[in-house]
Amino acid sequence: MTPDLLAVAAATKGFLPDDEAAALHAAALSADGGLWLEVGTYCGKSTVHVGSAARRRDAQLVTVDHHRGSEENQAGWEWHDTSLVDPHTGRLETLPSLRRTLWDAGLDDVVTAVVGSTQQVGRWWTSPLTFLFLDGNHTEEVAQHDYAAFAPHVVSGGVLCIHDVFENPADGGRPPWNVLRRAVDSGAFAEVSTTGSLRVLRRKSTPFA
Ligand code: MG
Q1: What CA–CA distance (Å, rounded) separates 79 from 181?
Q2: Longest dimension (CA), the chain
Q3: pTM, two decimal places
Q4: Phi and psi, residue 201, nearest 5°
Q5: Which residues are paired to 60 by β-bridges?
Q6: Confidence class of residue 209 from pLDDT cuts 50, 70 and 90?
Q7: 170 CA distance to ligand 1 middle (Å)
Q8: How many angstroms does the Cα of residue 55 sit away from the middle of ligand 1?
Q9: Which CATH superfamily is domain 3-203 in?
């Protein structure tokens, strides 16, 4: 990434350490062009890292989020940011932050923001994917839903990245780990690399189970 883009990403709110961001960018660069999907946008920090790779690979990136924050972002929770609350709804509102991030990064022509829950989008999504980044809601129900809704669309040889995967329960929640196990144990994906809590996998040519 150029220093300008790294500065935009660094100035964007989010939960992505630098080493994991670099690994995510590299994983995206290893994917073919075509259509890429990010699940969980927040303010667009990882969107800059993936979107800048998408431009180089001549891919289009879709990023989906309802933009009202996850449970851990709401008032009273650990990851609450009062500056992101919309006084009209009283809820978190991250879409304006994303729009500014994409503008600053010059990625408006590469990234399409879809505003809706993954349960909504999963009902109509049919497009094949050469890259998928799962980083949405971390409840077991939604994490499993997101894998089931979108991972089957990853083409053979396509790249799957999963964020916030912690093997040790003391380090973080179980759902992303369970999704990783599901992806590997099903035989559909092979593990490629681990950087912090970021896991990179590649879709095998075997039928999806
Ligand atoms: Mg994450």
Answers
A1: 26
A2: 50
A3: 0.95
A4: -130, 165
A5: 35
A6: low
A7: 17
A8: 22
A9: Vaccinia Virus protein VP39 (3.40.50.150)
